[in-house]
Design brief:
The chain has 13 helices and 21 strands. It is of the alpha/beta class. It binds shikimate-3-phosphate.
Length: 415
């Protein structure tokens, strides 16, 4: 699997502010992460690229960028970088694509302002204008479990005058805290579940030496393809199995999916392993609560699986899906309907009763990588196939997605 997107964003940002040379292997060379890499280069990081996914980064003090930093479509890139830039002794402007300019930024600008940051959003969105300000350690109770918000605050906390405490209502991904600890930052987990963290200021991060584990959110598309396409048998190797990322595996197991995990090991401070999957008869499932945040990026592909599962699949408490790259509840429901699916859209989720016959048709990726890839998998099981327009955005997180599917035996024709 290509490297994990979340870890790849974090690795280049943290390597750029560390003292010394960091080595990063299996880095994800994709649209979103390249945007972050470009921003760090604009901020003065010296980046040596041995091949697409092998980087050496000479870290140190950042310097101002003459131009606004352009994070393109990368929500993780802009939100985490805002946390770092809030603590710099120079001004910056963080911006992105039209799509990114529609995504909410007050979820980070409000708590950063509470820490003393001078950060202005534009109608609640980017561009973000950041000016130097003294940050003070604060306590912030996140209203929604979010890996991006938590990370922005932990990163700003590195530059504060005293410790910063962040609480989360559920298990948002913990890659930032794992990586910061590996780089010598003191972080105290105040409770057993890791829902209350205190980070201590640190301007001297140790360099990184990591091989980024495979992205479980990208593996999800192959996993569901393997389950749904009759007669499939697939092994997906080197997948990150961090408990905060594998809600989908738990849900698929409950749905009756036939998969097994082998070669468990630890890589870059993360649990990893191989997943062997066979096509399976699935049954419907109810999802809500903590599982939602642990599989937040996997709902578009879960919707495809749910159309093939026997009985009712109900998702609740997943309102966050409406503020991703697109409104993923509305967009997936609308696109799957074009293939003949019946989907009940709900304010905070959806209800799908299966199994349903997908006929076929033309659907659109909406410049949202996970929508485009989910629809591609739907096309594999649609009786007459599907034409997917705007499919190239898959490259924002999974370069070589179509080629990988073809290697697995899928019949995909370029448009
Ligand atoms: C991410 C966190 C999640 C996820 C996104 C990546 C991260 O977003 O949807 O794709 O790397 O921290 P939220 O933190 O907004 O839920």
């Amino acid at each position: 699997m290509p490297g994990d997107k979340s870890i790849s964003h974090r690795a280049v940002m943290l390597a750029a502010i560390a003292q010394g040379r960091s080595q990063i292997r299996n880095w994800l060379a994709a649209g979103d992460t390249e945007a972050t890499l470009g921003a760090m280069r604009d901020l003065g990081a010296r980046i040596e690229r041995h091949d697409e996914s092998t980087l050496t980064i000479e870290g140190g003090a950042l310097r101002p960028s003459a131009d606004p930093l352009n994070l393109l479509n990368a929500g993780t890139g802009i939100r985490l970088l805002a946390g770092i830039m809030a603590g710099q002794p120079f001004a910056s402007v963080l911006d992105g694509s039209e799509q990114l300019r529609r995504r909410p930024m007050t979820r980070i600008t409000d708590p950063l302002t509470q820490m003393g940051a001078d950060i202005q959003a534009t109608d609640g969105c980017c561009p973000l204008n950041i000016r130097p300000a003294a940050l003070k350690g604060t306590r912030y109770d996140m209203p929604v479990a979010s890996g991006q918000v938590k990370s922005a605050l932990l990163l700003a906390g590195l530059f504060a005058d005293s410790p910063t405490t962040v609480t989360q209502p559920g298990p948002a991904r913990d890659h930032t805290e794992r990586m910061l600890q590996a780089m010598g930052v003191r972080i105290i987990q105040e409770d057993e579940a890791g829902n209350c963290l205190t980070v201590f200021p640190n301007g001297q991060l140790d360099p990184l030496d990591i091989t980024v584990p495979g992205d479980p959110s990208s593996a999800a598309f192959l996993l569901v393809a393997g389950l749904l396409v009759p007669g499939s048998e697939l092994t997906i190797t080197g997948v990150d199995l961090n408990p905060t990322r594998i809600g989908l595996l738990d849900v698929l197991e409950e749905m009756g999916a036939d998969f097994a995990i082998s070669n468990r090991t630890t890589q870059a401070g993360e649990p990893v392993g191989d997943i062997q999957v066979k096509s399976s008869a699935l049954s419907g499932v109810e999802i809500g609560g903590e599982t939602v945040v642990r599989m937040i990026d996997e709902f578009p592909i879960l919707m495809v699986a749910a159309t093939q599962a026997e009985g009712e699949t109900i998702v609740r408490e997943a309102r966050e899906l409406r503020v991703k790259e697109t409104d993923r509840i509305a967009v997936m429901a609308a696109e799957l309907r074009k293939l003949g699916a019946v989907i009940e859209e709900r304010e905070d989720g959806f209800r799908i009763v299966g199994p349903q016959r997908l006929s076929g048709g033309q659907v659109d990726g909406h410049d949202d990588h996970r929508i485009a890839m989910s629809l591609t998998i739907a096309g594999l099981i649609a009786a007459e196939g599907a034409i997917i327009t705007d499919a190239a955005c898959a490259g924002d997180s999974f370069p070589g997605f179509a080629e990988t599917l073809v290697d697995c035996g899928a019949l995909l024709l370029p448009g």
